[in-house]
Amino acid sequence: MSVTSIDKDFDSMTLTLIADFDAPIERVWELWADPRLLERWWGPPTYPATVEEHDLTPGGAVTYFMTGPEGDRHRGWWRITSVEPPDVLEFTDGFADQDGTPNQDMPTTEVHVQLTDRDGGTRMELRSVFGSKEHMEQLMNMGMAEGLQQAVGQMDALLAG
Amino acid sequence: MVVCNDTDEAVDDLFHALADATRRDILRRSAQGELSVSRLADAYPMSFAAVQKHVAVLERAGLVRKERCGREQLVRSDPEAVRRARQAIDQLETAWRGRVDRMSRLLAEAPGFEDDNTRRGHDR
Question: Class of the B5-77 domain?
């Protein structure tokens, strides 16, 4: 089990996760930096991700889709805000419509990843904050709960399976 | 992105409401059951009027509802609003736990797997 700790702060809508990997920092960084590797862990096993654009530079984008059992596709995107290989990656994580246009009705999160070398192993600290203003706005929209549940609930079922 | 002013104001109200420790505490207490304003007032070193003001801020943000019951004013959290916030974070947690597990499994494969794109049938 590599998740060392997890903290959920409902006041600031922040998830903080610490994981320790028994692998050098460069290899953990590669999981983020190599699109072919990213595909192998980003989506759940039955909703594998296919990464299309993968530009880890500030302002750059990562775009991907996840393919479900029925051939259904779910698109998502990252907008990169900060990159310092092999330690830091920051990006906005969002959903997109079928044609790849960022979906404004779905929540975005600000993701901050920090990797640290620990005796040859690697600690990954991940902070994910719901895109405050926009997201809270969406939370207040009654229709949103269903939309999010539908999108993320699919993941839940898969992760449990 | 087009944001209607009404919604914008509502969001400001929500942030303002959650920015105060007493109000967050009131929200927590009222989430556990209906409470009267006078009982809440007993719980804090402040006047009835001050507590009433906090409740009014929470009410404006849509986080609690106030109902009159005889001479008492009852405060109840809006379970929908609270539930939606919790659900969103819980789902995020589930997603990330799964991802970390898969990262871990990938790292456990032999080093140099980066170049081995022909490999199939990993994990399940």
Answer: mainly alpha
